[in-house]
Amino acid sequence: MIGDCRKSQVERLYRLCLQLQASVSELHVLVEESQAIAGGRQTGELKKAVSRLTSTTTGSFYDPDSDPSADMWSASSEKKFYEKVDQCIDEHPLQAVQALEQRKAEFQNRAGWLWRMAKGHRLVALQTKDADKRKAELYKAIAFAERALAKKPSAEAHKWYGVSVGARSEFGTVQEKIKDGFTFKEHIDKAVKLNPKDPVLHHLLGRFNYEVSGLSWIERRAAAALFGSVPQSTTEEALQCLLKAEELSKKPWLENRYIIARCYIDDKKYKDAIKWIDKAVKCAVTSELDDAIIKEVKTLQAKYGSYRA
């Protein structure tokens, strides 16, 4: 009886979703007509409303006819559950975190659940504009990653602990930033040893080496005074990591190609730089970060275009 009731509720929800989708389609028609009347202009509020409704209704809805007993998150095995989380976490981290919370009672002491929670909260932080909320998400990520490391020091646990601690520098003092930089490097190095085929890890090391290579004399002295050692790296070391990331990556990577170009520019190898600038311009732009990077890439393209062979 409970199962029949649940199925009935799901069917009603599905029908409502279809009705809402139809309403959005009608709204799009009205918008197009209003644009024609207004000479192609669309008011900001109307545009936002359409965007919100469209994003709500273009997702994948559960179809009771395809599998009446299926439950996307709670009914699957641990392995299948993690596979589903991994499929959505990069683009929809908040949804992934919510799904992980649903299985907290079962998996909260498992390393796989813990590092995915760390990753999810870190990615949610990236999408959060409010500084206080972003900081809160970041510290949640660090806490989950620490627990994951205690359970099983896997490549993913080291990776997301290092990434989250590194991101914490946004909110720290100069001393804390330098300390977190050392911690970031330590854990990403460990992650690479455990999983040398992860392109993201090589990219992170390359980006770190590039930033360290550009440290000023004052910054190096500050690090030496505080911690007794000075971060050392060169653009050549950065390039080794970044080119390895490019080799391992399954798709064109805008940020990676941009930093490769910056390395060549810093080394005054402008012919090599423009090759990577041109490659970067061809990459898809899929985020706000990409928007900022592509603008810089196009500026560099205009500046160094004369160095093409």
Automatic annotation (TrEMBL):
Compartments (UniProt record): Cytoplasm, Cytoskeleton
Cross-referenced Pfam families: RMD1-3
Keyword tRNA-binding: no
Alphabetically ordered keywords of this record: Cytoplasm, Cytoskeleton, Repeat, TPR repeat
GO cellular component, one term: mitotic spindle pole
GO molecular function: microtubule binding
PANTHER family: REGULATOR OF MICROTUBULE DYNAMICS PROTEIN, REGULATOR OF MICROTUBULE DYNAMICS PROTEIN 1
Subunit note: Interacts with microtubules.
The protein, known as: Regulator of microtubule dynamics protein 1
Organism the protein comes from: Amphibalanus amphitrite (Striped barnacle)
Record gene name: rmdn2
